[in-house]
Amino acid sequence: MRTTVGIIGAGPAGLLLARLLHNAGIDAVVLESRDRSYVERRQRAGILEQGTADVLRAAGAGERMDREGLRHDGIELRFDRRRHRVDFPALTGGRSVTVYAQTEVCKDLIALQIRGGGPLLFEAEALAVEDAGTDAPRIRFRHEGREDVLECAYVVGCDGFWGVARKAIPSELTQVFERTYPFGWLGILADVPPSHDELVYARHDRGFALLSMRSPSVSRLYLQVPDGTEAGAWSDEEIWDELERRFETDDDWRLERGPITQKSVTPMRSYVHEPMRHGRLFLAGDAAHIVPPTGAKGLNLAVGDVVTFARALTHQQETGSPALLDAYSATCLRRVWQAERFSYDMTALLHRAPGATAFEDRLQLARLERIASSRAAETDLAEAYTGFPFG
Q1: Contact in structure between 201 and 47 (CB atoms under 8 Å)
Q2: 291 burial type by CB count under 10 A (0-12 exposed, 13-18 middle, 19+ buried)
Q3: Which residue of the set 204, 289, 297, 351 is catalytic?
Q4: Which of 6, 35, 79, 95 could form a disulfide with 386 if both were Cys (CB 3.0 to 4.6 A apart)?
Q5: Residue 79 in this model has a pLDDT that exceeds 80
């Protein structure tokens, strides 16, 4: 097989890249190790920045998002039994975010690709990226029980942290920056309407909690738990009781309970691999960087990467200049590190570290008080949350 761009991974980044390239008249092949059903059920992110939503619309993948997604114009911070709303449009010149699950983004992009895009091969396991440092990289893969080779002009690894793409970059050329956190998130899906119409980020002496949603009838909630916690260690009643404690306020707000349909624990880490390019191999999304979920940046960073690559390759096709492709890693990393900073800051602001002192507790409260009382501090949060510019 031969193509211009070989894309490893049919998550939202790989699928969106295929759509952007198709719209630019550039052929691509997408290889995905899982089957279609798995990809369309894989629960991940649910917050789309303003720029991500705009890109999906421009790519022709925004119709159902605009019909079924939930536009949010702010978030609520809770601390010391108080509530403070951050008004995004008022602070950012009109920007907002959209609640629309990654599963739905993938369904929309898969339907477009199958209807009118290039080849999308499910259950096609990428085994290795070969000759990445040359002008003719290859993806060796297994599909329908036999090995094959996809010859490419470029390879984009959208295959996540455990994928093969990053392994093709010689270790002596790389730097890795990472941080692990001594806590995780116990997350639940519950068949109950959200108890608030926007996301609620709660700082509590017992730990962080987040109230989110997947739809007007399905709630997504999280509790900070010690690292290594098993989801089954918490009963449904214990989860709801602890959520009530951490969301408590001095007014009459109440948390609605409902049947819990799913439990999982998400570990917390920060990770950046530099560079994000080697020869004709380009990394995107979790293959190159991971952020703790507090800042809702993971999916949006991946979108920024593939937008940057698509623009750079289109520029080369139209002008003959490789300048934007050569700058790919540096361009993406500027945005990545700002998102890493924001995600780390939000995590440190809202989570109580094991063994935290009374001094550290008061510092957290002072920082939250500053956001609630300073338009400048509040604007900095709102601008970062709604999204850093692409490229």
Answers
A1: no
A2: buried
A3: 297
A4: 95
A5: yes
Block residue for tokens 């624990």: 265
Residue type, 12: P
Do residues 346 and 294 make contact, with C-beta atoms less than 8 angstroms apart? yes
Mean local confidence (pLDDT), 113-133: 95
The yes-or-no answer on residue 100 being catalytic is no
Active site residue 293: yes
Contact, 303 vs 320, CB < 8 A? no
> Distance (Å, rounded) from C-alpha 329 to C-alpha 391?
10
User: Hey, what amino acid is at 50?
Assistant: Q
* Rounded CA separation 282/76 (Å): 37
Instruction: Based on the residue annotation, tell me whether 385 is a catalytic residue of this protein.
Output: yes
Catalytic residue among 100, 154, 222, 385: 385
| Cβ–Cβ < 8 Å for 386, 95 | yes
Give every CB contact of residue 63 below 8 A, 6+ residues apart in sequence.
108
Number of helices (H), then strands (E), in the chain: 12, 19
Rounded distance between C-alpha atoms, residue 143 and residue 124, angstroms: 5
Q: Which of 100, 154, 181, 201 is catalytic?
A: 201
Convert 70-108 into a string of H (helix), E (strand) and C (coil): EEECEEEEEECCEEEEEEHHHHHCCCCEEECCHHHHHHH
310 forms beta bridges with: none
As given in the structure block, the two tokens for residue 161 are 């942290």
Q: Quick check: is 263 catalytic?
A: no
Give the C-alpha distances (Å, rounded to integers) separating 26 from 3, 40, 230, 280, 292.
Answer: 9, 25, 45, 16, 34
Catalytic residue among 278, 293, 328, 351: 293
DSSP character for 389?
P
pLDDT one-digit tens code per residue, 350-364: 999 999 999 999 999
| Per-residue confidence band for 288, with pLDDT thresholds at 50, 70 and 90 | very high
- pTM for the structure as a whole: 0.95
Mean pLDDT, range 307-315, rounded to an integer: 98
What is the reported pLDDT for 45?
Answer: 74
DSSP state, residue 355: T
- pLDDT for the residue numbered 42: 81
pLDDT score recorded for residue 95: 97
Instruction: Pick the catalytic residue from 72, 273, 278, 351.
Output: 72
Stretch 81-101: mean pLDDT: 97
Active site residue 72: yes
CA–CA distances in Å: residue 342 to residues 94, 295, 345, 383:
20, 7, 5, 10
Q: Once rounded to an integer, what is the mean pLDDT over residues 265-291?
A: 97
